[in-house]
Amino acid sequence: MIPSRVLPISLRDANAFVLAHHRHSGQVRGCKFCVAVVDDLDAVHGVAIVGRPVARRLDDGKTAEVTRLCTDGIANGCSFLYSRCARIAKLMGYQKIITYTLATENGASLRASGWQCAPGLRGGGNWNVPGRPRADSRNTGPKRLYYKELR
Description:
Number of strands: 8
Radius of gyration: 15 Å
Strand content: 25-35%
Oligomer: single chain
């Protein structure tokens, strides 16, 4: 089965798909838009959730972030979703779209979609501080930043 098209999907339904299928990340709290990749029978095989950048210094009003992307293994589903998210973000007026992968992931679907990997690694710790304790995420390791200019 190959991806047929994308359809809008609610954040609730996208989060449910992420919880059922994502290897290491959970649901997100908010978004700008969500899309689902579907087959000819409109069965959902993957979702992408796009929102504001999590990193405050990147939240300039012109940058969108793919905060979750998940498929059930459909061939080319990830690159299909990354391409469509970039196209939709551009139509919405964004100038750049970003996402992060774990350092252990190879990013092939992003490169296939025309995204570039920024040099170096990002993050790697947690945000827990004495004045505001937070629960550790399963994803506290270093990450790679991928981006695509939308001009």
